[in-house]
Design goal:
This protein is mostly beta strands and about 240 residues long. The chain has a domain at about 80-235. It has no helices and 13 strands. A hairpin with a 4-residue loop joins strand 11 (about 180-200) and strand 12 (about 205-220). It is globular and about 60 Å long. The N and C termini lie close together (about 10 Å).
Length: about 240
């Protein structure tokens, strides 16, 4: 990840790259590249951070997905304790699939987030509504969703940082998934529990050990799955 100030008002430009290589099934090797800008604004006692981002994902060496994302984080002047903050976040994401027909979609999100920060402890809770608009030719058509996120971050000792997170996401499609073959309207519920430890290697580098448990439950049983992930990664942020 590379960050740089691009204006005197606090605007930041950023570039993010992520790559993943598999020991087997190399056709599922993936990489992604995102670039964007984030700018702060103030309207009286209201604060706003607006951002725009463009990205591309490659799968098996071929372009798989392109994405455009616009977001705004609004901080209203609420009478909250100094260590507590509330933000309202809205976003629009346009996703295009270059190798899949009828899967392009535009996702709208509205989310409220309550966060607590004191010394080295940080925690947050957010609740959001989602609307994923797509062609009726996409299996299941458009869908509406709900997301819940919990996060706790705290250092362990002088150098090691610890993070624990939980997320729940629910999606309800608007149309039968595949009329004539799968007549059910898809209902998807996904729970993710994540834990991570980070260790700094230098000024802009760190190692991260991450464990993740995923539980996906659906009314169409062939889509249900459980997944476990243990990942060691190196991260660089500059300058």
């Amino acid at each position: 990840e590379y960050l740089r100030d691009v204006s005197s008002n606090g605007s930041i430009g950023f570039v993010q790259y992520q790559g993943r290589r598999n020991d087997t099934l190399s056709q599922y090797n993936s990489s992604s590249l995102y670039a964007g800008i984030e700018s702060p604004y103030r309207f009286g006692r209201w604060t706003v951070r607006a951002s725009g981002m463009l990205g591309q994902l490659w799968l098996g060496g071929r372009t798989y997905q392109r994405q455009l994302q616009l977001q705004a984080r609004i901080g209203p002047p609420l009478p909250l304790p100094g260590s507590v903050q509330f933000n309202l976040m809205g976003g629009i994401t346009r996703t295009e699939y270059l190798s899949l027909d009828n899967f392009d979609a535009t996702t709208y999100e509205l989310r409220g987030q309550l966060s607590y920060r004191r010394a080295s402890l940080y925690s947050s809770f957010s609740l959001g509504a989602l609307n994923d608009v797509s062609s009726e030719r996409r299996p299941g058509g458009s869908r509406k969703g709900l997301s819940v996120n919990l996060l706790l971050r705290h250092p362990i000792g002088a150098d090691v940082g610890a993070e624990l997170a939980y997320s729940h996401q629910a999606w309800d499609s608007s149309l039968p998934y595949l009329p004539g073959l799968i007549s059910e309207v898809r209902e998807q519920r996904t729970d993710v529990l994540r834990g991570a430890l980070t260790y700094p290697l230098g000024k802009n580098q760190k190692l991260q050990l991450e464990g993740r448990l995923v539980r996906n439950r659906e009314n169409i049983s062939i889509f249900q799955y459980d997944n476990k992930l243990l990942q060691l990664s190196w991260q660089w942020q500059g300058p």
